[in-house]
Structures are given as C-alpha cells and as structure tokens.
Specification:
With 218 residues, the chain is α+β, with helices and mostly antiparallel strands. The protein is built from three helices and ten strands. The strands form two sheets. Strands 1-8-7-9-10 form a five-stranded mixed beta sheet, sandwiched between helices. A five-stranded mixed beta sheet has the order 2-3-4-6-5, with helices on one face.
Length: 218
C-alpha cells in the first residue's frame, strides 16, 4: 500500500438528540450511520463506601448490549471508556462522590466503540459535568489489500486486516486513548492516524452544532 491510498475518506452522517431520558442529569442518543447508542449520566451523587475517594469522584461505567448479557468484549469496552473519561472529567472537583455513566447499545452497524465514546461525551456535555477538554473518537480499518476506510459501516469492516479507534482531545488534537487490533506496519499506522486526525475535526464541529441548537431552544 502506498501511503494515502484509501477506499473512503469521509465520515458517516451523524445525528444526535439530547435530554431523551428524564431520569438522568444528562443524556444523548447518537447515531453514526446506522450505528446507534444511548448514553446517560448521573452525578455527582452518593458513592458506595468501597468506592469512596477523598480526593476525587469515582467513575462507574455500565454498558448494556442490544441483546443478552454483556460478555468479555463489553467489559473491555467499559474499561476503555472508563480509562478515557477518568483522564478527561475533572474528578477532583467532586471528592467522595460517584459519577455514573449508563450506555445502551441500540444497533451496531460498524464503529460501535467510537460511537459510544462520542455519545458519552455528548451526554456529559448535556449534564454540565466539568471536563478538562472534549474528546471524540474516529474508527478506521485496513482491508487485506491495504486500503484504509474511515468510519466503515458493517460491510466495510467485516473482514479487516487491522482496525483502529483513536480518541482525540479538542484542544491540541492529541490522542487520549488508542485501541488497535490486527496486523499493520508502522507506515500504515501513521497514515491511519493522519487521516483520523484530519477527520476528527468534523466530530468536534458536530458537537458545537448540537450544543448551539440546544442553547437556541432554551
């Protein structure tokens, strides 16, 4: 593969609705293409004694798959989200409390991890919980022929040689966390990272549009 060779360099359409749940401090339903996730945030609130920290808030992540009970991959997703948002939320402002994030998978048609991370950020923004910066995720795959696809759908990501999810912060566009799977060269990694860095600005712009619409409706 020559650097820059791609099959698609655009993101799927994104739609979001805020405040869709009445029993939460902040909520968002996000769709990216046909992948859909609902995220809800509650807190800061009372924390169980075993999780109490006198210096910062405890973050709880609960992911519910569309069908059945959660498996190993769902627990790994919870861990990825927790590590991402522990580095983002200003937990030191709320010691001896808990911040609970509930996530419901509605439909997975590719890029579920990225969609979930983005839905959580929107729900946190809706809740008013303070963050150091916003974060947004971009999903990419490399197929057996070496073609890179940004934000692939279910068909495009069916048999990837490698897949990536990059999480960026909105100030310097540095990566907050990275998830990779499969085989790839260093040159391929840097090319995928370059493309994802260029694409994430569209996600941050989308956040701005959603919050602006919410403000107009107040």
């Amino acid at each position: 593969m020559s650097p820059g060779e791609t099959t698609d360099n655009s993101l799927r359409p994104m739609l979001c609705e805020l405040n869709i749940l009445t029993r939460s401090d902040g909520s968002a339903m996000l769709t990216q293409g046909e992948t859909a996730v609902v995220a809800a945030v509650n807190g800061p609130m009372e924390v169980r004694m075993q999780h109490m920290n006198v210096e910062k808030a405890h973050i709880e992540i609960h992911f519910k798959p569309r069908f059945g009970l959660g498996g190993v991959n769902d627990r790994l997703l919870e861990d990825l989200i927790k590590r991402t948002y522990e580095s983002v939320i200003l937990t030191s402002l709320h010691p001896r409390t808990a911040i609970s994030i509930q996530i419901q998978e509605m439909q997975d048609r590719g890029g579920l991890v990225a969609c979930t991370i983005n839905a959580v950020c929107l729900a946190l923004m809706n809740s008013g919980i303070e963050m150091k910066h916003l974060v947004a995720a971009v999903h990419c795959v490399i197929d057996e022929k070496g073609h890179i696809t940004l934000d692939p759908d279910e068909l495009q990501s069916k048999h990837p040689r490698a897949k990536f999810t990059f999480v960026f912060e909105n100030v310097s566009k540095n990566t907050v966390s990275i998830y990779t799977h499969g085989k790839f060269t260093l040159a391929e990694y840097h090319e995928v990272l370059r493309m994802a860095t260029g694409a994430v600005e569209k996600v941050f712009n989308f956040y701005g549009e959603i919050i602006a619409k919410q403000s107009e409706g107040l």
